[in-house]
Amino acid sequence: MRMTMNISKRVRSAAWALGACAALFGPLTADAAQSSPDNTGDAALIAHGEYLARAGDCIACHSAPSGKPFAGGLKFDTPIGAIYSTNITPDRSTGIGSWTFAQFDRAVREGVRPNGDTLYPAMPYPSYARLSDDDMHALYAYFTHGVAPVAQNNRPVDIVWPLSMRWPLGIWRHLFAPNPQAFDAAHYSDPVLARGAYLVQGLGHCGACHTPRSVTMQELALDDLDGPSYLSGGAPIDGWVPSSLRGNPRTGVGAWSEADLVQFLKTGRTAHAAAFGGMTDVVQHSAQYMSDADVTAMARYIKTLPSSDPAEKPYVYDDTAAHALRTGDASAPGAAVYRDNCTSCHRSDGRGYTGVFPALGGNPVLQGKDATSVIHVLLSGSALQGTKTAPSTFTMPAFGWRLSDAEVADVTNFVRTSWGNTGSTVTASDVAKVRKTVPVAAPELPPGAIRSH
């Protein structure tokens, strides 16, 4: 078993999609064609825009599986139906090639497309509202001059009328989305912290996944000045639970150093945990390409966020489970399942192998109240792709095809209560609910092999 931690910034989260980090730009109107600023073809500006687009992980949501980059078509399931990311290539008929800078800027920072309709809040424009004018010009230059145009029509939403009407989105936007206003660095005395705050709060839109939402689906906080809810962990997205990025000693990153966070963003793996779910895309497409200075700034800013739960106690390792397994005692519920399926990678002591198979003891994702991520990775497995600085790919196999709901529940409870972990327990019915929502399939057999029953 390969347990991982979701420290996701993208991971498909936003107001109604609860999990999209995409700007769902709508089709152009006939009067939208105007000329763009003269300097948008400048090579340096385009290169800067490409860097910003990577930092914002735009490609992850605006590219469908096996599709062309930024041509859209990626499906996001929402409580009222499916929506699809749109074509943001510079194709003049189906993309944004005829958009003026003002139209592009209003869509990104205000959530309003050229015809006046409000974008679905799967576009994290509440975060992008604080982007600087310079960065907006660079992004516009890149998407209009640095991206290959793709002629691909946008897919209409799969939402029935009257829920498909756009005007309620305008009300939501006026109530909960801030007006565009350049980031105020004066709140942070250290320029490195200010840069980190700008990236985390704005372009990185980390809060879109890692901040809880109200019943009306807006983020409870858009920055650290709004209170301790900011980055304190989000609701399940696509079967993964975004963890707290605050200083909580067990359920957050309180036990992590700044260097740990830098390593995680660059490679997706540390001595504490490894990326899973949408966060693997963030590392693969975005964070590994960011400059050392920017990744350090983000990590330093995150480390300034205090714990959202002052009563939470630090993790302390407990050798009881390890001693039992080493001496052949697998009588505890779930212990035999763990011994037979997990010890080769995560070891009897739950400490794994640093940089290869993450530790389970003290892993933040095993400490919280919601075990959805643990169940999901057990059922479906996970893969952590190699990066520039950590080129090896490691895979957690799926066990859902051969373990029953009761067995998955038992081993989930075992890892969440062993080695000093204090996570809540689950039942077989909890596993059954997750199984209905995630892909579970037996692995392909080699030619000529026969699966025994």
Automatic annotation (TrEMBL):
Residues 44-147, 191-306, 329-419 form the Cytochrome c domain. Heme c 1 binds at residues 58, 61-62. GO terms for molecular function: electron transfer activity; heme binding; iron ion binding; oxidoreductase activity, acting on CH-OH group of donors. Heme c 3 binds at residues 342, 345-346. Binds 3 heme c groups covalently per subunit. It is found in: Cell membrane. Residues 1-32 form the signal peptide. One of its GO terms (cellular component) is plasma membrane. Its cofactor is heme c. Keywords: Cell membrane, Electron transport, Heme, Iron, Membrane, Metal-binding, Repeat, Signal, Transport. Heme c 2 binds at residues 206, 209-210. PANTHER family: ALCOHOL DEHYDROGENASE CYTOCHROME C SUBUNIT, BLL4482 PROTEIN-RELATED. This is Cytochrome c, mono-and diheme variants. It comes from Paraburkholderia fungorum.
